[in-house]
Amino acid sequence: MHTPLCDQLGIEFPIFAFTHCRDVVVAVSKAGGFGVLGAVGFTPEQLEIELNWIDENIGDHPYGVDIVIPNKYEGMDANMSTEELTKMLQSMVPQQHLDFAKKLLADHGVPVDDADNNALQLLGWTEATATPQVEIALTHPKCTLIANALGTPPADMIKHIHDAGRMVAALCGSPAQALKHAQADIDIIIAQGGEGGGHCGEVGSIVLWPQVVKAVAPRPVLAAGGIGSGYQIAAALAMGCQGAWSGSQWLMVEEAENTPVQQAAYVNASSRDTVRSRSFTGKPCRMLKNDWTEAWQTEGNPEPLGMPLQYMVSGMAVAATSKYPNETVDVAFNPVGQVVGQFSKVEKTSAVIDRWVQEYLEASGRLNDLNEAATV
């Protein structure tokens, strides 16, 4: 399991792990993969603390940082400072949405402290808020990749990252989006099928991956959406991808910050228990279906706002999830892909990497056996 992209990044296996947990970033990179820290929930000051910790614990291994700058969002054309943009967006959030969210949490016994929640706060969902995150990341030499989760990053940002000697990756859900990435000189295209967790499109992985590979060749493509075994990585590489971008699996490792109650929810879920919902971020995002997602699509209730306005409402639920993780499962933001139906236990990160490598070798061996049998 080795591709040219491994040589470019100096890693052993083409396994890229997206996670919001710094411990998982370190564990994956030390096990031969490439850990990527999701920065969207961190202020620049918090991100600096996280990256300093990673630098101190990761040894000589590289890692990446994932940001979120969507192609379209409310207020994107406003030439304002972050503070001015935040105030403008706050004025656009209807009070009925805030009241509805607070009542929904209260009905589930979740305390909402108005002085200690993220409602009406603007995190890393815009260029104005993501740019300081990029600046922080570029001060850390071991951070060799900046990825954008939604759309093509601005041209000046791509140039700035390249000038700093780092690579740029971006996710897409269609060949057309992939071509825009390639035309903007994105180094790595991440093709995410609709079954993937988090923000995703509607086209399934097995259809999307080869389409994107063909559209942007010879630019390297990572397969995302439905990656939960080495067998699936083998399928992705067979279609021309140079590696796998995974996320859901890393919720189910010992190093993750998730509690046993949260992880039990994943074990008990089937692949049919996820839904693409706009109820947390304002854009279609695959997550575990629960009372929160159902409430926002019930007729007569408020409809989700656009990005980033909806998160300025749902931020109170995200804050409550962090503060009361075991009590908020029914109203929590749980981005996860349909691959959740494969999860049966919590493992060490290194054990997952080892298992995936062995499964890849098994799949490759079966193909070789078939080829040999066909030539006899």
UniProtKB/TrEMBL annotation:
A single MF term (Gene Ontology): nitronate monooxygenase activity
SUPFAM superfamilies reported for this sequence: Inosine monophosphate dehydrogenase (IMPDH)
Flavoprotein among keywords: yes
Keywords assigned: Flavoprotein, FMN, Monooxygenase, Oxidoreductase
Domain of life of the source: Bacteria
CDD domains with a match to the protein in the record: NPD_like
PANTHER family with a match to the protein in the record: 2-NITROPROPANE DIOXYGENASE, MONOOXYGENASE RV1533-RELATED
Name of the molecule in the record: Monooxygenase
Provenance organism: Mycolicibacterium iranicum (Mycobacterium iranicum)
